[in-house]
Design goal:
The protein is of the alpha/beta class. It folds into two domains: 10-236, Alpha-Beta Complex (Amidase signature (AS) enzymes); 249-451, Amidase signature (AS) enzymes (Alpha-Beta Complex). It has helices at 10-19, 24-36, 42-45, 54-66, 110-117, 162-169, 186-192, 226-236, 267-282, 297-301, 306-323, 329-340, 343-364, 388-400, 403-408, 436-451, and strands at residues 78-82, 121-126, 176-180, 195-198, 218-223, 253-258, 286-291, 369-373, 412-416, 426-430. α5 (110-117) links the parallel β1 and β2 (121-126).
């Protein structure tokens, strides 16, 4: 199963628009045709359909460009937005039937508003795991898009930003806006052979985004390259574009995490990951293997459900009292873990997290960035998730490594590192808290090496 034509990165699309090779209408029409194709994955990727305003918005950007008034070089490029972001005039369903009767949002979420102000064309809400509470991406209410990199039997896209990755991978959007609480941009990016980025949590406003965890949530992106994610990140953060020109790789010192946190890799992931490390060494990057034992605390902090269960239960308790049967039972099980936490348990999470952040910084801050696999496994088959036992086991595995960056509140980016034609595997680079642009610059310098 293939995703269609050769992908074009945002820079290439911007150049094509500037040179007149494309119009915003032509780009948007291609995306809409793929979304509406009856034989395709559009109905699961955009379960509520594309916005009726998309073509009119594209035409408006074409007129601005013709008049020399394009608001940015990316004006007219179509992108998708995860279903937990407010879009003015559209109900934010968060992938759940709990919100079906809610009124339309009165305004765009600030992150969306900044992208629209830069001229991006919003295609609509993309599919997601209900309440953003799973790394699998499965949604029994509205359907689950098939991973565009499936090798015969259909594989899951990963989650919770399932439709974000599927929309990019299937060529239904040029890039995607998502959220990341424990890996929800990076896991689907890794499973689908794309790039996924999560920033430091406070970097981009989370107003107008329905929270899973007010403590851990981040506004992230998925694209075909580190440059794509850097472009979206700068706009949403209200900053100038980041220059990702080549830098000297030999000056970089990276910590390669060893120890329990990154054990148990499948053969496919281990082979691709180690080969990528070999390529980095050959390029002159200094790699230092380090057993960062303190990272095992992430599992202990999350043992009772962690921040996510406590905070989503508190946000939903009134809706749950009205009709909890509306929620996917697998998601509900994790939500209800929050009901079992005491106030003492919840307050203890903050102390444990602060201690972990301090312990990790003493080791990791000596390096320019940290290297880990994004997930210890490749995208599971839909068939693999038939039983609840298998679902929860694979979900826990998928989140085990990626959740480290959220718990430490550090920026992280997943880059594809698999051999040509193999199932996708992601390599994560993690930076220092608040130094998001430095991490993106490193990712831009190393991406070609990591990809091989």
């Amino acid at each position: 199963m293939t995703a269609g034509s050769e992908p074009e990165h945002l820079d290439a699309l911007a150049e094509g628009l500037a040179l007149g090779r494309y119009t915003s209408r032509s780009l948007t029409e291609v995306c809409l045709a793929r979304i509406s194709a009856p034989e395709g994955e559009g109905k699961h990727t955009f379960p509520h359909g594309a916005l009726a305003t998309a073509l009119a918005d594209a035409d408006a950007q074409d007129r601005l460009r013709a008049d020399g008034r394009a608001p940015s070089r990316f004006a007219g490029i179509p992108i998708s937005v995860k279903d937990n972001f407010d879009l003015a005039g559209v109900t934010t369903r968060v992938g759940s039937r709990l919100f079906d009767g809610d009124p339309p949002a009165r305004a765009d979420a600030p992150a969306v508003a900044r992208l629209k102000a830069a001229g991006f064309v919003i295609l609509g809400h993309s599919a997601m795991t209900e309440l953003a509470f799973s790394g699998m991406g499965v949604n029994p209410h509205y359907g689950t898009p098939v991973n565009p990199r499936s090798d015969g039997a259909p594989r899951i896209p990963g989650g919770s930003s399932a439709g974000a990755a599927a929309s990019v991978g299937w060529g239904m959007a040029s890039a995607a806006l998502g959220t990341d609480t424990g890996g929800s941009c990076r896991i689907p990016a890794a499973f689908c052979g794309l790039v996924g980025f999560k920033p430091t949590s406070a970097r981009i406003s989370r107003d107008g985004v329905y929270p899973l965890s007010k403590t851990l949530d981040c506004i992230g992106s998925i694209g075909h390259s580190a440059r794509c994610c850097a472009a979206l990140d700068a706009i949403m953060a209200g900053q100038s574009p980041l220059d990702l020109d080549e830098r000297a790789t030999g000056a970089l010192s990276l910590c390669v995490v060893d120890g329990p946190a990154v054990e148990g890799l499948t053969a496919n992931v281990a082979s691709a990951y180690e080969a990528a490390l070999d390529r980095l060494r050959a390029a002159g990057v200094r790699l230092v293997r380090q057993n960062v034992g303190c990272l095992a605390a992430v599992g202990r902090i999350n043992a009772l459900g962690g921040f996510s269960s406590a905070e989503i239960f508190d946000a939903l308790k009134d809706r749950l009292a009205a009709d909890a049967s509306l929620i996917d039972p697998r998601v509900l099980k994790r939500v209800m873990m929050g009901a079992e936490q005491t106030m003492s348990d919840y307050e203890g999470l903050f102390a444990a997290r602060a201690a972990l952040i301090q312990d990790a910084a003493e080791i990791l801050d000596r390096f320019d960035a940290v290297v880990m696999p994004t997930a210890p496994l490749e995208a599971p088959l839909f068939e693999d998730l038939k039983t609840d036992e298998a679902y929860f086991r694979l979900n826990g595995l998928s989140l085990r490594i990626s959740s480290i960056a959220n718990m430490l509140d550090r920026p992280a980016i997943s880059l594809p590192c698999q051999p040509l034609g193999a199932l996708p595997v992601g390599l994560t680079l993690m930076g220092r808290t608040g130094e998001d642009r430095a991490l993106l610059a490193i990712a831009g310098a190393l991406e070609g090496i990591v990809r091989g």
